[in-house]
Amino acid sequence: MKLTIVTIAYNSAEVIGRTIESVLAQERGEEPFAIEYLIIDGASSDDTVLTAEQYASAMETAGIEYRISSEPDAGIYDAMNKGIRGASGDIIGILNSGDWYEPTAAATAAATFARTGCDLMYANINLHKSDGSFFVKKARQRRYQTSRDWNHPTTFVRAQLCKQYPFRCLGIHDDYGFFLQMRRQGRTIVTVDKVLANFAMGGASNRKSLKAAAKRIMDRYRYCYRINGYSRLYIVECIAIEAAKMLLG
Asked: Is the whole model's pTM more than 0.85, yes or no?
């Protein structure tokens, strides 16, 4: 089994090292697997690419296939699609620059796919706030679907599905839209009650302004729920998510 991990980056020289080092630190488990690691940079003007290149030797020593590309893109999901198209692995995970894996992430993914034959899996995540504190966001599956139960940095998907259903590049929550698409198709989805990744809060999905929140509400409603056939009542869920972000940070 080969896992392809895709990291998209843009002017993230200060944080990408932590992300790359977390891939280097992946432990091996009982299920044998190989790792391919792709850095998809959006033509950064800082030292992002130079920083990534400095890990090439360590990746070779660790037996990780490592490739870096840098060119302009049309946004984060366009960059993710580029990585997916270039992936040669059986399973794909996407870890954005600035976020980082726990050492058991890849081994847990390999073991879960081998044991369950699932199409998609995801797990718990640590959410890190700007004040240095963090809390655990659990992975769950419920009849009433909510993004409060799903964590993209811990998600691993069969490559054939990622390639067949690329991100639509319509809004800021296209990753969640893909998850809902897989769910509506009846794909086999498994959750793992274990922290596999860490997410640094404060990006585009957490900006505290009413204008940004309103845009996120409509993006989530139109391009996640409605486009995948979910009820109009999910507008309430979209508003509740943004209200919680305003309160929790």
From this structure: yes
